[in-house]
Amino acid sequence: MEGDGLTPVDVAGVGDVPEGSMVHVEAAGLELLLANVAGRFYAVSDRCGHQGARLSAGRLDGTVVTCPAHASRFDIVTGKNLSGPVMAGLPGLAAFSPRVRAMVRRQAEIMARTPVRDLPAYRVTVVDGRVLVEV
Fold it and tell me: What is the reported pTM?
């Protein structure tokens, strides 16, 4: 986790991020995903470690965020990649032509070879109702 010697930057009010939700914020030129899980705040890079999609547009389930582009999953406490990407077996794929299905399978093979980087995770504190992220 980033920390030691970094500057705390005010990124949001506690009320700006309801429990169980996440938002996109920016601090010191960085795009961050800020999440509130059971009253605790977490911050990680808002760009997927696979192909850079905005994670805050994805789905949050507890402390796991799922990328909206290819379903890579990350732990927002540590930034570690848990799984993904996923493309084959997408819901509704059977409705497409054999040509489209073959294209999707080929894209899935290519994506499987693309490494997925862990996300930088940042220390978060709350002071007087403000959320501060050390960057």
Answer: 0.82
Amino acid at 101: R
Q: Is the dihedral of CA 58, 113, 51, 81 positive or negative?
A: positive
pLDDT digit string, tens, across residues 108-132: 777 777 788 999 999 999 999 999 9
For the chain, the structural domain boundaries read 8-127
Indicate the SS3 state at residue 103. Answer: helix
The token pair at 88 is 């084959």
DSSP 98: H
> Hey, which residues does 36 pair with through a beta bridge?
41
Share of the chain above pLDDT 70, in %: 93
32: nearest Cα among 14, 17, 11, 50: 11
Q: Does domain 8-127 have CATH number 2.60.130.10?
A: no
Stated as kind and residue range, the H or E segment containing 67 is none
Take residue 129 and report the two structure tokens written for it: 């109702």
Q: What is the pLDDT of residue 88?
A: 55
